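Budget justification, computational time. The allocation requested in the original proposal was used primarily to generate structure tokens for proteins on the priority list. As evidence of use, we reproduce two of the resulting records. The first is shown immediately below.
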Amino acid sequence: MGRSTGLAGPAEAVTDPDRVDGAVSRVRDSDPVGEAVRRARDSDPVAEVVRRVRDALEEVFTAVAATGADTGTLLAEVSGSGREPVAADLAALRPGLHARLAAHPLVSGVGFVAAPGLLSDVPGWLEWWQRGPDGAVRPLLLDLDPEHSAYSDYTHWDWYTLPRETGRRAVAGPYVDYLCSDEYSLTLSAPVGLGGRFTGVAAADVYLRHFEAAVLPVLQRLPGPARLVNARGRVAASTDPAHLAGSLTKGPDFAAVLAGPPAEHRADGLRLLPCGTTPLVLVTTDD
């Protein structure tokens, strides 16, 4: 994690995109029902892109939601005991975080990031665990002392500000993780609250190369250049040489597209289609 990073950590390679491809990938093409599904899929490549993105990232958001639920329950219990939470209380989240790293192959790191002032004994805290290159699960240890660390203020990064400002889950990145791995990563996050108060974000990391392995095969089936962008216009995956992954797209209000009904929009000669409830927009030319 760094000035221009997401929260990332090493993960096992996910070279088979069908690991996150849902029920269709489990139906053999030789099966008559599977063949019918395959024909329907191939006849509507845009719908297949939306489905593939949704299936891949909803798996990760499942881990984020579980972390958020565990954190909310924990903070409510501490509050109910009549005291302020401290960093040591968040250790109770660790069994669940370890289990999510084992259960979700796309997730390379997962945890809770506390809002400043939430914990009475430290100014900020990340209860963050990640999988190492050997498969071992380890904590991310950061120096959050503002007098010594460039990483002490994490509240300006998109994975934190988007959920805080919108009250919605978000996809941030890709970012280069200079601190942990020098890998491009996406961070998926969601706000955690208690009694109407924002207490921080639950989040999970996905290596960009793993996400691209899941979605580029279907993006390449589209007849023209296409890209997936987040609410800020950051490109998460692309077959358009003019808009590479990690670049910032100018133009339409992608946040407004995501905030509205999941319907197709047209603007500036582009087709904009939200990927279901997943906070990414598929952008193609308006032929």
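The second record produced under the same allocation is shown here.
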Amino acid sequence: MPSLRAEGPGERLTLDDYSADFSRHFWRSGSDGFWKLERQQSFQEPGVESWEAFRKGHWDESLALIEGQRGHYEEYFQRIAGNGFALHRVRCVEEPISPYLQWELHLLHLKAQCGEDTRVLTGGGIPQYESRRPLPEIVVLGSLVMYEVLYDDAGRLAGGIRFDDPRDISRCRQAIQKMHQSGEPLDSFFSRQVARMPPPTVTEE
């Protein structure tokens, strides 16, 4: 399988620089599309209303806030399609499913209904891709640019490392594509494993 580790040098970006750089390139992803690999099982999402409700233990409110975003995401994915590309995601899921991931899978399920192509790689399928260390968090924007997304110790977005070498970008995109092909469509995984889970017990801060 192609490596998910860049061979060429990368440029370390602060959070503000990463966000600005990502925004500049996102809508130019082109026919190669947007590919994202998510490995960590818990993040912090300060400022996201549904996550804030989840964190406070208000599960029904959190789900209602997610559903309230349906119109926004329908328009968002229509705009993406109109720009000639699609969003593809591989979400690694270990069991037991963490409280954060239970929340995120509800959000990803909504996004999938609106047009995102998400597949789940479960715990049994993850080790074959991890020889010595956990998989990185990777975002590939077409053939233009690739980022290793960085988080602080609390799981808050902290910036990224940008890579421009076309060989690194192509190799990592192919690696994520292979993982995507081997994963389970989110809809079936969600229906079987997530939809009937009781509200999570929030222990994360």
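A brief technical remark on that second record: The chain is about 40% helix and 20% strand.
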